C-alpha cells in the first residue's frame, strides 16, 4: 500500500527525484477535466467542419476563405494541444521530455500562425474596403496562398530558433521527473512578445480603424444617393454592402481574438505571472485557448454557407459524386 507521501508523487517509485502532484479536491479536478475535455473536443470538431467545408466546396475557394482555412487549421492544433493540458491537470507530465518539447513547439507555432493569419485577414479587409477597385488584382488566390505558406513557415522557423536550447536538449530545465518546463531567455522572450502580440495587434487595430472609418463614409454616401443610382450602380452598391458585411463579420472574429488573448499576453508583458494564483493562471490560459472554439461558433452565427455546409457534411451528402459543385452560397 502506498504511503501518503508516495501517493502525492508523480512517480511514487522515484521517491527522491519525482515531482509532487498538485493537491486539489477531487471534485475540482473532475470539473476541470470535464470543462477542458468539452472545449477541446468542440474545438477540434467545429474547426474540422470548417476545414472540410472550405476544402471541399469549390464555391468557397476564395482568397478570404483561404485565410479562414488557415485560421481553422491553427485553431484545430490548439484544440489538440488542449488534450495535453488535460494531462497536466494534476501537475504531472507522464509522456517524457521529447513529447514535452514537441507539445510546446506545436503550441508556439499554432499561436504565432493564428496571430499572423489575423493580420492577413485585416489586410484583406483593408484592401477590400479601402481599395475596392484594386482588390481583384491585389488579392488573388495565388498571392494569398503564398502569404499563408510564408506565415506558417516563418512561424515554424522563428519558434524553432526561440526554443533552440530546449530542442537540442529536451528536459534540460526540469528539476524532477514528471515536470514539463521550457525556458526562454529574456531577450528572446521580449522579441517573441513584440513579434507575436504587440506588433500584430497594433497592425490589426490600425487597419480596422481605417476600415471602420471608410465603411462609415461609404454607408453615408450610399444612403444619400440611393434614389439616384442606376441599375449598374445598384449592383456596385450591393457589392460594397457585401464587402462591408464581410468586414463586420471578420471584425467580430478579431475583436473576440483580442478579448481572449489580451489577458494572456498582458500577464507576460507586465511580468505579473508569478503573482497570479493557480486558479487565475488557469483561467487566463483557458480563455486564450477558448478563442479557438469561439471562431467556428461565430462563423455558424454569421455565415449561412457554413450552416448549409454542416448539414451536407453531417448528412454525408458530400460523399455523393459532384457534391463539390454544390451551390453553397
Average pLDDT, all residues:
79
CATH class: Mainly Alpha
Overall body shape: globular
Q: What is the CATH H-level superfamily?
A: Rhodopsin 7-helix transmembrane proteins
Helix content: over 70%
Model regions low in confidence, pLDDT < 50 over at least 5 residues: 1-6, 272-277
Multimeric state: single chain
What is the radius of gyration?
A: 23 Å
Q: How many domains comprise the coordinates?
A: 1
What is the CATH topology descriptor?
Answer: Rhopdopsin 7-helix transmembrane proteins
| H/I helix tally | 11
Q: Helix and strand string, N-terminal first?
A: HHHHHHHHHHH
User: What is the structural class?
Assistant: mainly alpha
Distance between the termini: 64 Å
Explain what the structure shows.
By secondary structure, the chain is mostly helical. The chain has one domain: Rhodopsin 7-helix transmembrane proteins (Rhopdopsin 7-helix transmembrane proteins). The protein is built from eleven helices and no strands. The protein is globular. The termini are far apart. The N terminus is likely disordered.
Question: What's the short story on this structure?
Answer:
By secondary structure, the chain is mainly alpha-helical.
Ordered list of secondary-structure elements with their pairings:
Layout: H1 4-7, H2 26-56, H3 63-87, H4 96-130, H5 135-138, H6 141-162, H7 164-168, H8 186-225, H9 231-270, H10 278-302, H11 304-314
Task: Name a few traits of the molecule.
Rhopdopsin 7-helix transmembrane proteins; 74% helix; 0% strand; globular
Amino acid at each position: 500500500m502506498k504511503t501518503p507521501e508516495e501517493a502525492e508523487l508523480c512517480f511514487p517509485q522515484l521517491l527522491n527525484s519525482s515531482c509532487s502532484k498538485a493537491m486539489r479536491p477531487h471534485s475540482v479536478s473532475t470539473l476541470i477535466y470535464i470543462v477542458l475535455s468539452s472545449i477541446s473536443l468542440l474545438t477540434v470538431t467545429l474547426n474540422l467542419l470548417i476545414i472540410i467545408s472550405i476544402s471541399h466546396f469549390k464555391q468557397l475557394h476564395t482568397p478570404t476563405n483561404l485565410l479562414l482555412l488557415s485560421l481553422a487549421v491553427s485553431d484545430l492544433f490548439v484544440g489538440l494541444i488542449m488534450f495535453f493540458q488535460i494531462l497536466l491537470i494534476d501537475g504531472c507530465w507522464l509522456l517524457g521530455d521529447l513529447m514535452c518539447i514537441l507539445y510546446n513547439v506545436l503550441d508556439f507555432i499554432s499561436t504565432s500562425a493564428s496571430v499572423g493569419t489575423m493580420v492577413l485577414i485585416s489586410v484583406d479587409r483593408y484592401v477590400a474596403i479601402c481599395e475596392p477597385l484594386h482588390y481583384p488584382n491585389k488579392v488573388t488566390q495565388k498571392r494569398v496562398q503564398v502569404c499563408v505558406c510564408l506565415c506558417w513557415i516563418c512561424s515554424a522557423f522563428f519558434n524553432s530558433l526561440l526554443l533552440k536550447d530546449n530542442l537540442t536538449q529536451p528536459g534540460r530545465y526540469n528539476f524532477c521527473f514528471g515536470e514539463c518546463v521550457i525556458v526562454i531567455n529574456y531577450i528572446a522572450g521580449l522579441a517573441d512578445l513584440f513579434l507575436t502580440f504587440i506588433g500584430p495587434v497594433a497592425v490589426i487595430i490600425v487597419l480596422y480603424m481605417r476600415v471602420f472609418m471608410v465603411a462609415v463614409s461609404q454607408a453615408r454616401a450610399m444612403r444619400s444617393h440611393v434614389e439616384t443610382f442606376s441599375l449598374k450602380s445598384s449592383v456596385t452598391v450591393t457589392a460594397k454592402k457585401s464587402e462591408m458585411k464581410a468586414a463586420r463579420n471578420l471584425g467580430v472574429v478579431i475583436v473576440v481574438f483580442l478579448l481572449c488573448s489580451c489577458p494572456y499576453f498582458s500577464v507576460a508583458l507586465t511580468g505579473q505571472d508569478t503573482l497570479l494564483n493557480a486558479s487565475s493562471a488557469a483561467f487566463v490560459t483557458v480563455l486564450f485557448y477558448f478563442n479557438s472554439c469561439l471562431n467556428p461558433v461565430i462563423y455558424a452565427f454569421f455565415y449561412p454557407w457554413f450552416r448549409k455546409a454542416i448539414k451536407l457534411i453531417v448528412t454525408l451528402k458530400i460523399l455523393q459524386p459532384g457534391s463539390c459543385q454544390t451551390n453553397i452560397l
